[in-house]
Structure formats: structure tokens, C-alpha cells
Amino acid sequence: MQDNIIQIMPAAGWVAVFDEDGEESAQGVVCFALVESAMKREVRAMVADGAQIGFADALPNFVRVQELDAFEEEDDEDEEEEDEEEDEA
N or C: which end of the chain has fewer CB within 10 A? Predict the structure, then answer.
């Protein structure tokens, strides 16, 4: 069944998070789309994939959508933990 985009909304400040070899990476979300398929509606994040825009959750290794600030805070915490582990060694 085909997904029909009903509406798109800006997504400034949001990222799609992907798992790449055990490390999380983020890609900026271009927009959120209100999508209708099989008689249900849902909001899905869209990201640039080369010269096209596609649904983030359709790409390999997709984990979640998160606010950029929250993702950066988690990344900072992970770096601090790594630094503490290196100091202990």
C-alpha cells in the first residue's frame, strides 16, 4: 500500500538517530510528514538521502527521532564517561 503525505511541518532542531557499528550518529530531520496509509495516520520524520528526501524510519540502522539538544547532551555525557575511564586506567 502506498503512503500518502497529507501535510508536512518544519522540523528545525530535530535529528534522526542511526546506529553505525555500535556508535550513534545523527542526521538532521528536514521535515515531519503527516502520512496516511492503510486507513491510519501517523507522523514520520523525513531526511535528505543524497538528492532525494525519504522517510528516516525506512533507512537502514534507524533508531529514533530526538531533539538535537537532547542528542548532544547524551553525546557529551558519553564523552565524559570515556574520559573518566581513561583517567582510571
Answer: C
Q: Are 30 and 52 in contact (CB under 8 A)?
A: no
- CA 46 – CA 73 distance, rounded (Å): 23
How far is 55 from 33, CA to CA, in rounded Å? Answer: 9
User: Cα separations (Å) of 8 from 15, 26, 62, 73?
Assistant: 16, 21, 20, 28
Query: pLDDT, tens digit, for every residue of 54-83?
Result: 999 999 999 999 999 999 888 766 666 665
Nearest Cα to 64, choosing from 41, 47, 81, 40? 47
- From residue 79, give the alpha-carbon distance in Å to each of 27, 57, 72: 19, 27, 11
CA distance 1 to 20: 30
CA distance 23 to 34: 30
Output the pTM of the full model.
0.77
